[in-house]
């Protein structure tokens, strides 16, 4: 494989650059030949998940005292780009991201000491799989219009409602569930709860058959008089909106790093193919119509990486990165789809078949325009920050 787009490691420290290469090397040891079969069967690669946990991926940003890696945001971003570049199971990479930003970060930053001791070591090591249940059938792009309720009882809280499109739910050991504990507008009155899988009254079923990211399991979660103790509250009662917003800030920044890695891997594949495939007596890369597409790929990769690393730097300095993460999420998710449409075109009929992984990467890329806030929502965030 020809490596044509080295990461912008001149922007980071030698230690971060070395860690990046170490993650790429590790990711390439994960099974590659079985991914197409896993995709067809919509199967989750649990052994690869465990190996990533053993390497330290899932716990990267969490404190060392709780089993994490203690890495800063920039280092975490670089590691996830490297994982996206070296690992061909895009669904697995997506599930790892979902686990980190909707479980590891919320428990670390909002959990009580008891919650951290109980959940963080397993979540960081990969022994446990986490997810969060926010989206509802009528609360998607407007998540704070959720109707799931949590009423106080002598035992704690009684939860009722229905969640959908919950990534990792079919394999999760712990779920962070959002429900309304009081009347309020928008994020006010919503509370987050940490609930073990198998809790009576909480049913995980109806696994969702998706177009892409098929190796990342997704299902519905139903709450039917699900009683949880007061100790299950994550953060403060009525302040679950803060938990969700923090998760989204991390997710919109870091999950795009993995897409940069995928884009880089696809571009390398296109370069190799364009040099080897001959038509009209010469390699197809000599035709401007092909070369220009690949040149545009490099531009998108470098621009996207710069936007994502900017978010990391801001977060490492303790600054608000809501605007910048929305910009990065919008640009990279849209660029990823364009890049993979061009990759299919470069490969011609082969790109449309399952012989190459291009068609699967295209299917996997489309979800980026939807999850973690649609492209339309990112544009709304950007416009509002511009005073519009």
Overview of this structure, please?
It contains eleven helices and ten strands. With 388 residues, it is an alpha+beta fold. It folds into three domains: 121 residues, Acyl-CoA dehydrogenase/oxidase, N-terminal domain (Butyryl-Coa Dehydrogenase, subunit A, domain 1, Orthogonal Bundle), CATH 1.10.540.10; 111 residues, Butyryl-CoA Dehydrogenase, subunit A, domain 2, CATH 2.40.110; 142 residues, Butyryl-CoA Dehydrogenase, subunit A, domain 3. It has a four-stranded mixed beta sheet with strand order 1-4-5-8, with helices on one face. α4 runs antiparallel to α8.
List the helices and strands and how they pair.
Layout: H1 14-27, H2 35-41, H3 46-55, H4 73-86, H5 90-110, H6 113-125, E1 130-133, E2 149-153, E3 156-167, E4 174-180, E5 190-196, E6 202-205, E7 218-228, E8 233-234, H7 240-276, E9 278-279, E10 282-283, H8 288-316, H9 322-347, H10 358-366, H11 375-385
Parallel strand pairs: 1-4
Antiparallel strand pairs: 2-3, 3-7, 4-5, 5-8, 6-7, 9-10
Helix pairs in contact: 1-4, 4-7, 4-8, 5-6, 5-7, 7-8, 7-9, 8-9, 9-10, 9-11
CATH superfamily of the largest domain: Butyryl-CoA Dehydrogenase, subunit A, domain 3
How much strand?
A: 5-15%
Q: How much is the radius of gyration in Å?
A: 21 Å
> In sequence order, what are the helices and strands, one letter per element?
HHHHHHEEEEEEEEHEEHHHH
């Amino acid at each position: 494989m020809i490596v044509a787009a080295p990461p912008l490691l001149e922007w980071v420290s030698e230690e971060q650059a070395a860690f990046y290469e170490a993650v790429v090397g590790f990711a390439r040891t994960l099974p590659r030949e079985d991914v197409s079969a896993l995709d067809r069967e919509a199967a989750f690669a649990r052994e690869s998940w465990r190996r990533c946990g053993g390497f330290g991926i899932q716990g990267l940003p969490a404190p060392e005292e709780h089993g994490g890696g203690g890495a800063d945001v920039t280092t975490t971003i670089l590691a996830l780009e490297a994982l996206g570049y070296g690992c061909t199971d895009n669904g697995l990479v997506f599930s790892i991201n979902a686990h980190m930003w909707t479980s590891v970060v919320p428990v670390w930053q909002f959990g009580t000491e008891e919650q951290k001791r109980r959940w963080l070591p397993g979540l960081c090591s990969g022994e446990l799989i986490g997810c969060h249940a926010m989206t509802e059938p009528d609360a998607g792009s407007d998540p704070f219009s959720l109707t799931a309720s949590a009423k106080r009882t002598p035992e704690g809280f009684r939860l009722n409602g229905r969640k959908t499109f919950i990534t990792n739910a079919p394999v999760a050991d712990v779920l962070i569930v959002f429900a309304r504990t009081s009347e309020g507008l928008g994020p006010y009155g919503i509370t987050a709860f940490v609930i073990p899988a198998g809790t009576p009254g909480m049913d995980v079923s109806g696994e969702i058959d998706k177009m892409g990211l098929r190796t990342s399991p997704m299902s519905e979660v139903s709450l039917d008089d699900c009683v949880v103790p007061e100790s299950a509250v994550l953060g403060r009662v009525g302040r679950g909106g803060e938990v969700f917003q923090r998760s989204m800030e991390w997710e919109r920044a870091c999950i795009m790093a993995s897409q940069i890695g995928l884009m880089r891997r696809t571009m390398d594949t296109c370069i190799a193919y364009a040099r080897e495939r001959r038509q009209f007596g010469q390699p197809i890369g000599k035709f401007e119509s092909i070369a220009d597409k690949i040149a545009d790929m490099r531009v998108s990769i470098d621009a996207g990486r710069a936007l994502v690393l900017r978010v990391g730097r801001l977060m490492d300095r303790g600054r608000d990165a809501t605007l910048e993460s929305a910009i990065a999420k919008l640009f990279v998710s849209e660029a990823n789809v364009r890049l993979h449409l061009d990759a299919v075109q470069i490969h011609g009929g082969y790109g449309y078949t399952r012989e190459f992984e291009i068609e699967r990467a295209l299917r996997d890329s489309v979800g980026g325009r939807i999850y973690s806030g649609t492209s339309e929502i990112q544009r709304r965030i950007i416009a509002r920050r511009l005073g519009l």
